[in-house]
Design brief:
mainly alpha; 6 helices
Length: 161
């Protein structure tokens, strides 16, 4: 009798345990996040502005994609500055090599790679500490956007020299 009760108890609880996870459970890889262009397909710029500025009723998914879109824009700006910085370093490295000095480009590339790892890990850390919060992806994309914007400003300052 006890054995049947245990089996019945497990059969009743198993579906609860199996479906207890949410879309905010566990690890995620932001590289596989749906793009904002796909998510917002068919919406006008005015509709997106109202939605992302909070003037329309937005779901958490909408707000996460608004933050994702902000990150995509800031990352594109950063990539433009990185391209300009690489061109500048390539030109300077020619004169450095001619003078027998070490090149700057390999160190810049290592720094950029380390920075990207830092950004990703920092934002995952801040996100996972929240647990299964419904705002998880909003906070993640805001973190990514903020750190990316800071790096873009840093590179912009370096380009002035």
């Amino acid at each position: 009798m006890i054995r049947r009760t245990k089996c019945l108890f497990m059969l009743v609880l198993l579906p609860v345990a199996a479906f207890g996870k949410t879309v905010y459970s566990g690890e995620f890889d932001y590289h596989y996040f749906e793009s904002p262009q796909v998510y917002f397909k068919g919406r006008t710029a005015a509709e997106l502005a109202r939605l992302c500025d909070g003037r329309d009723n937005a779901t958490n998914d909408d707000l996460a994609q608004c933050s994702h879109q902000k990150f995509v824009r800031l990352n594109s700006e950063l990539n433009g500055r990185l391209k300009a910085m690489r061109e500048k370093l390539a030109n300077r490295d020619k004169s450095l090599t001619a003078d027998g000095e070490p090149k700057a480009m390999p160190y810049f590339e290592k720094a950029q790679s380390s920075w990207a790892g830092y950004r990703d890990n920092e934002c995952y850390s801040e996100t996972y500490v929240m647990g299964e919060a419904a705002e998880r992806y909003i906070f993640f994309w805001e973190c990514m956007a903020g750190i990316t914007e800071s790096r873009s400003k840093e590179i912009g300052e370096l380009l002035k020299y």
